[in-house]
Write a structure and sequence with these properties.
The complex is a heterodimer of chains A (about 200) and B (about 110). Helix content of chain A is about 80%, strand content about 5%. Chain B is mostly helical and about 110 residues long. The chains are: A mainly alpha (about 200), B mainly alpha (about 110).
Chain lengths: ~200, ~110
């Protein structure tokens, strides 16, 4: 086990605690809220071609992130086989999917802030804690995705320049660990925030 | 371990896991779409959540092929998180109860 990989794992363990605390805090304020909690299924619904589909944007975002995990796993595989060109392609595909995810989240935030009037300190739909939890949790996750996109782009450039030909391709796997973790956190946010 | 160049799995394995995650995500979405409620909804949501998390950690993040010590390092600390979540669930319910009682008495 290269030391960098172990350090990444330990960092991700600490990050697990960070997100756990956010989600636990969200659970606590939601359980104790006096006003009714806004229904996420309706809040995040979209009307596409005249059809009102509940939670559809979030579902698409979930599929995008899962797909990016798949492309990342393949990138790591190609890296260890020494296929530089394919490694770069798959890493860039992963980063592009991540960037798409962030753009959709920006769209979602805009819709909530401008159309629904949701603020961190209150909203017209019900419990004030909804906005606080939503912006905190999804904002922090979105920041992780954004950082991941930059991280992947940097590593992909180094792969392309042949920097890892001598020292081996562990850094690709390490960046992959980070990326899968971002996907992993989204699995919990999707289940606990959007489906509860 | 550091001498072993890992990750010699066929690409088809990743495609299978990816497809499986896709199916599980669709199932979670359908739980909401068909407006299931109560214990059934919660059971399904948590079941799909843990299955997806398990697949990502064990296959995509390769934990299934890592040494046992690393598995312990990563999987034991979350037990503390689980205990904390349990405590805070009690706390949340208690806060809600005491708020209701406070409103009733005034």
């Amino acid at each position: 086990m290269p030391w960098g990989k172990l350090m990444m794992w330990l960092f991700l363990l600490s990050d697990t605690f960070v997100f756990s605390i956010f989600l636990t805090g969200y659970m606590t304020v939601r359980l104790s809220a006096m006003e009714s909690w806004p229904n996420p299924s309706e809040v995040f619904a979209l009307t596409i071609a005249g059809h009102h589909i509940p939670l559809v944007l979030i579902a698409i975002m979930t599929f995008i992130l899962i797909t990016s995990s798949g492309t990342m796993a393949m990138a790591v595989n190609f890296a260890y086989r020494g296929d530089r060109r394919r490694t770069v392609y798959f890493m860039l595909a992963t980063a592009a999917l991540g960037a798409t995810f962030v753009c959709m989240q920006a769209f979602e935030w805009t819709k909530l802030i401008l159309d629904e009037g949701i603020r961190p300190w209150g909203n017209p739909l019900g419990a004030a804690q909804f906005g606080a939890s939503f912006f905190m949790i999804t904002g922090f996750h979105g920041m992780h995705v954004t950082a991941g996109v930059i991280y992947l782009a940097v590593i992909a450039r180094r792969v392309a320049s042949g920097r890892y030909e001598e020292k081996g391709y562990h850094n690709v796997e390490i960046s992959g660990l980070y990326w899968h973790f971002v996907d992993l956190v989204w699995v919990f946010i999707f289940a606990l925030f959007y489906l509860w | 371990m550091s001498q072993v160049i890992g990750q010699q799995h066929p690409i088809s394995l990743y495609l299978k896991i990816w497809a499986l995650l896709f199916v599980l995500s669709t199932m979670s979405y359908l739980v909401d779409y068909f407006q299931l409620h109560g214990a059934l909804r919660w059971t399904l949501i948590l079941l799909f959540m843990f299955l997806k998390a398990g697949l990502i950690i064990s296959v995509f993040m390769h934990l299934a092929w890592e040494r046992f010590a690393l598995k312990l390092v990563l999987l034991l600390p979350p037990v503390a998180i689980a205990i904390f979540i349990t405590l805070m669930a009690f706390e949340g319910h208690y806060t809600f109860f005491s708020r209701i009682m406070g409103f009733v008495s005034t």
